[in-house]
Design goal:
The chain is 54% helix and 12% strand. It is built from 25 helices and 16 strands. Helix 2 (45-70) packs across helix 12 (286-311), helix 3 (78-94) crosses helix 10 and helix 17 runs parallel beside helix 20 (524-537). The structure holds adenosine-5'-triphosphate. InterPro entries: AAA+_ATPase, ABC_AA/LPS_Transport, ABC_transp_permease, ABC_transporter-like_ATP-bd, BCA_ABC_TP_C, LivM-like, P-loop_NTPase.
Length: 629
């Protein structure tokens, strides 16, 4: 079979993977960390303290990179979660009640660990509740809720007698690990950086997995992600909890480094600063968190020194200058500094792709229904938008082994109907059945689970991710490993299978040469084919294609038609919404015509072509008339 897409995209040159550099990024990281370890004992005390803070802030910023840069959500309340971690351990370690009850039982050395546990439990509960009530509501609710949370917790810390009020709590003991007392910045600093790097490794693994793709898909919009089988609300909540737990871990280490806690470091301003760190560093990049934390910590430090000397008086000038600098940086480097740094060093630093050598494990397979089985059935579907009836008593079916085209002039109600039969919206009246099941208000992911694959009228791909990753997302629900398994790299066999399946579908659609390029670098017509490959990776029984031929050249359309014929022969039921009459007439087995929301004709292409009502109503207008002729 010829390839649906053969021409090179115009923007390909700009989208080539990073050039080969002289040194590998991994080697450079190892050398930098080894150097830091070698000089650690000789660094001045002040430098060590600053590095400890950078490590602690990086941990919080890592959570925000995941939440904001990767998942597309915003939180101003991370400082409050840091406060929970710090105050929980401070209270457990210093309260006579807790210390005598728990310390007597488990020994005083266990108190910091119990403090950590308490911090995690409180954070988990609060973040889960906050997440549950806000993340389902899109837009500003989560940021506003985190501001309210950040403000209220700050005042709570300051007003609780048992937490020391505004004075705070002192006398927090140092952590002891294997008999080693981590009482100096130099010793606890090693733990801070080890924990931060470990967290980064786990998050890196998570992002490089099926679950990571699902997390990234949140940024592609709820409709797309749900259509791939991703439970978006659940992933949002989990991401919010993960970021909050990282902040709590940072707060725990902070309390045992400072040995003292008070409300000031956990106020809303600091919450905003954490967000700055993630965004300035490069919100979509884990190393961006470290870069952002380092730049902002050092910048504030220097401004505090330089400005009073320069201006001859103290007056919090550093806050004003800091704010202005942040605006400038964000205006100049909208994606953050890490991607810019990567671009500038592309000729020097080589970033090798991760090679996955695990043996693929078989993915879930669906037994396709026999040819002629009704896959999808819409019965008397009515959809009203206020007074407007967009679909009026529409009934139609899709059978296994057929191509059914839905056509109609602009505004006829095709997209509205497409939304009804794919779970994006539900009918005002009437019923949709998929695989014999009445769907009611079921979400798109339920449609995907039952065997429905779809593409979008306006292409919905993750433009910065590779074609391979985009297509692998389509196979999401055919595998099962969760977040922990992904973080610990226990998903490699499954991941190898998902990537192999994605590559197979990409090659089948004729895009093999583009698999490793960013999806956004392909021409629009090619991106539509990527969406088909993504739908096929889910091994659907019914395939809904929204204007698949739009933007394709003549030969590419022919190749696409060949692919769809082959899929039909394999037993898939394909519903095509399409404006290109030549494409439809040559391909479809049955055609349903909509006008003003009503079905005006159903039949074989030859019947539709001579149907007077269709000719009057639909083919009466300019371009389409020419196409039909
Ligand atoms: N969410 C909505 N709220 C109100 N009206 C809507 C909504 N969605 C669609 N409509 C209206 O319903 C009618 C049918 O629109 P629809 O997009 O389904 O048509 P279409 O056949 O897909 O058109 P096109 O070929 O241009 O995509 C139009 O009058 C449109 O303005």
């Amino acid at each position: 079979m010829s390839s649906p897409v053969s021409s090179r995209p115009a923007s390909l040159a700009a989208a080539q993977p990073v050039r080969q550099g002289l040194v590998s990024a991994r080697l450079l990281t190892v050398i930098a960390l080894a150097l830091l370890a070698a000089v650690w004992s000789f660094l001045p005390d002040f430098t060590v303290v600053v590095l400890c803070y950078i490590g602690l802030y990086s941990m919080v910023a890592l959570g925000l990179v995941m939440l904001t840069g990767v998942g597309g959500m915003t939180s101003f309340g991370q400082a409050a979660f840091v406060g929970v971690g710090a105050y929980a351990t401070a209270w457990v370690c210093t309260s006579p009640l807790a210390a005598s009850a728990l310390g007597g039982l488990l020994g005083t050395q266990a108190l910091p660990w119990l403090g950590l546990l308490l911090g995690f439990v409180i954070t988990f509960a609060v973040a889960w509740v906050l997440g549950s009530v806000t993340v389902k509501l899109q837009g500003h609710y989560l940021p506003l809720c985190t501001i309210a949370w950040g403000l209220s917790l700050y005042y709570l810390f300051g007003n609780m007698e048992f937490l020391g009020g505004q004075t705070g709590l002192t006398g927090i003991p140092a952590i002891k690990i294997a008999g080693l007392d981590l009482s100096s910045s130099r010793t606890i600093g090693v733990v801070i950086w080890a924990v931060m790097l470990q967290a980064m490794w786990l998050l890196h693994n998570l992002l490089d997995s099926r679950e990571g793709r699902a997390i990234r898909s949140l940024k592609g919009g709820q409709i797309m992600a749900e259509s791939m089988g991703v439970n978006t609300a659940r992933y949002r909540i989990k991401l919010f909890v993960l970021a909050a737990l990282l902040a709590t871990l940072s707060g725990w280490l902070y309390a045992h480094m400072q040995r003292f806690v008070s409300p000031a470091p956990f106020n809303l301003n600091i919450g905003i600063e954490y967000l700055f760190m993630a965004v300035v560093g490069g919100a979509g990049h884990l190393w961006g968190a470290v870069l952002g934390a380092a730049i902002i910590t050092l910048l504030k430090e220097k401004l505090q020194d330089i400005l009073p000397a320069l201006l001859g008086s103290n007056g919090n000038f550093e806050t004003i200058v800091f704010g202005l600098l942040m605006v400038l940086v964000l205006q100049r480097f909208a994606e953050g500094l890490w991607p810019t740094l990567q671009r500038l060093t592309a000729g020097l630093i080589h970033r090798p792709e991760n090679k996955l050598r695990a043996e693929p494990r078989p993915l879930d397979r669906r037994v396709l229904p026999a040819a002629g089985t009704v896959l999808l059935q819409a019965e008397h579907v009515i959809k009203r938008f206020g007074g407007l009836v967009a679909n009026n008593n529409v009934s139609m079916s899709l059978k296994a082994g057929e191509v059914h085209a839905l056509i109609g002039p602009n505004g006829a109600g095709k997209s509205t109907f497409f939304n009804m039969i794919s779970g994006v919206d539900s009918p005002t009246e009437g019923e949709v059945q998929l695989m014999g099941q009445v769907m009611g208000d079921a979400p798109s992911r339920r449609f995907a689970a039952l065997g429905l694959g779809r593409t979008f009228q306006h292409v919905r791909l993750l433009g910065q991710r590779s074609v391979l990753e985009n297509v692998a997302l389509g196979a999401h629900r055919r595998a099962h490993k969760g977040w922990i398994a992904s973080m610990l790299r226990l998903d490699r066999h499954e991941e190898a299978a998902l990537l192999a399946e994605a590559r197979k579908q990409i090659e089948r659609c004729g895009l093999g040469a583009y698999a490793d390029l960013p999806a956004a670098s392909l021409a629009l017509g090619q991106q539509r084919i990527v969406e088909i490959a993504r739908a096929l990776a889910g091994q659907p029984a019914a395939l809904l294609l929204d204007e698949p031929a739009a933007g394709l050249r003549h030969l590419e359309k022919q190749a696409l038609a060949d692919l769809l014929r082959q899929l039909r022969a394999e037993g898939l039921g394909i519903l095509v919404v399409e404006h290109d009459m030549e494409f439809v007439m040559n391909l479809a087995d049955r055609i349903t015509v909509l006008e003003f929301g009503c079905v005006i004709a159903t039949g074989k292409p030859a019947e539709i072509q001579v149907n007077q009502r269709v000719l009057d109503a639909y083919l009466g207008g300019g371009d389409d008339e020419e196409a039909a002729a």
